[in-house]
Each structure stands twice: as C-alpha cells, then as structure tokens.
Amino acid sequence: xxxxxxxxxxIGDIVLTTPVIRCLKQQLGAEIHYLTKKSFHAVLAANPYIxxxxxxxxxxxxxxxxxxxxxxxxxxxxxxxxxxxQVKRALGVKSFSFNKINFHKWLIVxxxxxxxxxxxxxxxxxxxxxxxxxxxxxKGLDYFIPESEELAVSSExxxxxxxxxxxxxxxFIAFVIGAAHATKRLPTDKIISICKKIKHPIILLGGPEDAxxxxxxxxxxxxxxxxxxxxxxxxxxxSLVKQAWKVITHDTGLMHIAAAFNKDIxxxxxxxxxxxxxxxxxxxxxxxxxxxxxxxxSCRPCSKxxxxxxxxxxxxxxxxxxxxxFTSL
Length: 329
Fold this sequence. Notes:
Blueprint: E1 2-6, H1 11-15, H2 18-28, E2 31-37, H3 41-44, E3 52-56, H4 61-69, E4 74-77, H5 82-91, E5 95-97, H6 102-111, H7 121-127, H8 156-162, E6 173-176, H9 188-197, E7 202-205, H10 211-221, E8 225-227, H11 234-243, E9 246-250, H12 253-260, E10 264-268, E11 289-292, H13 316-319
Parallel strand pairs: 1-2, 1-4, 2-3, 4-5, 6-7, 6-9, 7-8, 9-10, 10-11
Helix pairs in contact: 9-10
C-alpha cells in the first residue's frame, strides 16, 4: 500500500501531522510519501516513518508528473485547500481529508458564538484516516533532528554563534519570542519584564526577523539572557528546545516541537485561543503545558490567524498577561 500525505505548510501544522504519519506506517505498514513546500523540508527530513518527501516551490504542477508515476492507493489531504484539491483531481485516487471547522471559527471570531468542537486538530487529522482502520496510538507528536544539526549549548559552535560565552547555561529556559503575526507576540517591554523576573539563564529563539528585537531584549533584561534569534537553523533551534529545562512560547511552530519533546511549556496566547484546537499536544496521560491568556475579553479572538497590530489599539490580550508565574522560575 502506498499513501500520499499532503500538508504544504507551516512548521507547526506539519509537526501536528506526525501522529498520522507514524500511525499509517506502523499500523498499516504503508509506504508513506509526503508532499510539502521546499521551505518546510527540514521539518520532515529526518522522520523515519516517511519513505519519500516530494517538494514544490509554490505550484503543484511542479510535482504532478512525478506524483502520477507513483500510483498511490490513497491520498490523505491534511491541508484541504485549492492546491491539495488540484493534486487529488490530477491523481484521481481515493482521498480522505479533515474538517477545518472554518464556519465554527468564523462564528466565534465574528459573533463570539462558541460551537468549536472540543477536539485537538491532531484528533481531527486522525479522524481522516479512521476509515482505513487507523487509531490514535496515544504517543503524541514526533520530531526528529538530523545528527548533524544537533547543537549542544556547551559547544564551541554555539558559543561562537551567540556571543558572549555561554557558560553556566544548565538548566536554561528557551523563550520563543517570535510568531507569524504581531498579535500573537508579547510586546517587547513585556518580554523584558518577564525575563527580569526569571532567575535561570534564558536563550531567546526566533527567526531572522526577530533578531533585532532579541538584541533589545537581551541588552535590557540582563546578562542571563542570550539572543540566538536568526543565528540558528530550524533544527538547531529545535535542538535547544529539546535541551531546555522549560519552554516559554507563543502560539508558534516551536511550541509544537517542544510538545513533541514532552517539555514543560508555558504557552502565551494573544488574539488566538487554544480552543481552536492548536494547543500543545502531548502523549496520552501527559499535560505539561501551562496556558497563559486573558480570558473574557469581548474582542477575543479577533482572528483565527492574526494581525500586524491590534485592531482595537489597546492590545489587552497581551498587555494584560499575568506575569506572576515567572517569578518562580
């Protein structure tokens, strides 16, 4: 049996598909191919349950000729958009997709009527393969780091990247300061305030776009804060998350990678809400996440994704986050 899984983006969404990958491989013994965008290849590159990764830059036409040669038995569409529909139409084999609950999200964003199902998106992904006889194995998420991209905080390589020297970094806290949209990120002064309350060493993680902000935070919060934003590849950042004592993170990809490593997480939520079904997903019986959010705001959630700035101007969903929990770290 040969199965094609489709999920084009993004980091977190792809990590959340890993239970489906594992269960299909282990329970059906299927040959698993995965179609995604080139920019997210690293997320799956070391996954031992995937037999072949097919990548596109942007358009599915780039891969259709090769996909047709594979003669798939089934397509598992975990993106459920126009591009994935184009693939399914072109290949013409039986497919399964998941419920994106877009109408439910629209209701709560626009009318504040909550009919959201009490189900994590992982469970909705797995529901798509139920008819194949696949069941949730309860083992949570997977994330595999290529050996060449493991990065120890005690290594000369890491010290050279981040500067200043990184002695006395165990145990350290990984603070993921980035997120795709501004309304999913704590304001800079709030992050500085939080870092000042924490006694343990802190490594700031994020992409190149977060690097300037990371420098401001590191310079303002104290010598125990090191800015690694923009200096590491994704899997190197994942390696630091894996080694961290605790992880503080916004609703972003590294949050799900942290859950895959079964880390203690403090997840901070702004304009989005955990009820969308994207909160940290742990193995059955585990829950090491502490959710920080400002509940009962009449304007929240204001979007299912996020904005460049608060539509109301006050940004109370992040400005009013309670910082008391950080004084014990």
